[in-house]
Design brief:
Blueprint lengths: L2 E9 L4 E8 L2 H10 L2 E8 L6 H5 L6 H16 L4 H13 L3 H15 L4 H5 L8 H13 L2 H59 L7 H15 L1 H20 L1 H13 L3 H22 L4 H10 L4 H15 L5 H7 L4 H13 L2 H57 L1
Antiparallel strand pairs: 1-2, 1-3
Amino acid sequence: MPTVYTYTGKTKQGEAKKGEITANTLEEAKGQLAGQGILGVAVQEKKDWKNLEISFGGNSVTDKEVVIFTRQFATMINSGLPLIQCLDILASSITAENKFFGKSISEIKVSVEGGSTFADSLKKHTKIFDDLYTNMVAAGEAGGLLDTILGRLATHMEKAMKLKGQIKRATIYPMAIVIVAVVVISALMIFVIPTFAKMFADLSGGKAGLPWPTELVIGVSNFMQTYWYVIFGGAYGLLRLFKYYYSTPKGNVQIDALALKAPLMGDLIRKASVARFARTLGTLISSGVPILEGLNIVARTSGNKIVEQAILSARASISEGKTVADPLAKSGVFPSMVTQMIAVGEATGALDAMLGKIADFYDDEVDAAVEALTAAMEPAIMMILGPIIGFVVVAMYLPIFKMASAMG
């Protein structure tokens, strides 16, 4: 269905350009603009009053919603219902919960009715269905096993959601502790310490004679009250700088390499990457997707540039008639046990089954790594924050103790 997109970009001569373009998909719009010599484009769907209700309802679809859709679709296809009827039923039921998703399913149905394959129709909705999904559906359509493939897809997505949840669980807890600690320390410095400082000034007629820890804490408090905008602006600037550097090719590689070497967290990232790689590639191969295409998809969804480079090296090795295991072993990213099992799977012709076993094993390893990280992070954070808060408290009570001893 043709859609109007707005764009901004530059010509080859550096002249700024903006306007509107009509295309069936976002990728098609970008292709048209590239053909016109417009570079560095930012393209987005134009919002109008006709789509206002959908815009207010949000234009996102959760992984859980896609899993439920896929499960229901697989069941309907397995029951013998025609593809168009399945899409019609699902579009009606989904619209009540998510209007954007329901509208997208209706557009897919119209596309299929117009003669497009189901996989090609899904490719027009890249915000909802990724390359993994569309390639597996294409393989299922070609082999007449669409219901089986959809079932595998749903299972794969459920396990991927579980893995993502484990990673979130590992990071949210320590982040929450740090944020609470920062808020508490900031509140002490901005609201509580000034009260003590005024009291000490009234009692001693100035800051002279205060112990050095007290002077230090009061000095930090005064700085935070006076230059709070510098502190927050600096923190925001550092965050923006980090994001910019990470978006560059060199920064992406360096930061991802450091992430794999980080204590505790690096081990978790490595194990999660191995589990994701094995699960995704095994699912693709067992569904009939060619291994070269499968490795390309897995590389793009790896989430780490170092892992992506290792997988692309394996893809190049396969295209030259060699094995997958050797370049993975040389990369240093994948544990030797994994590469040995992959080598056995290649030699026996059961690579997909072997990858499934690796994925199951590393799912459990990720669970154990999350528990170890959570157990280690809490005392580590408290060892850092405890002395800081303790120092502030002691610094504020030292003058009181000094006055009490002088009076006694």
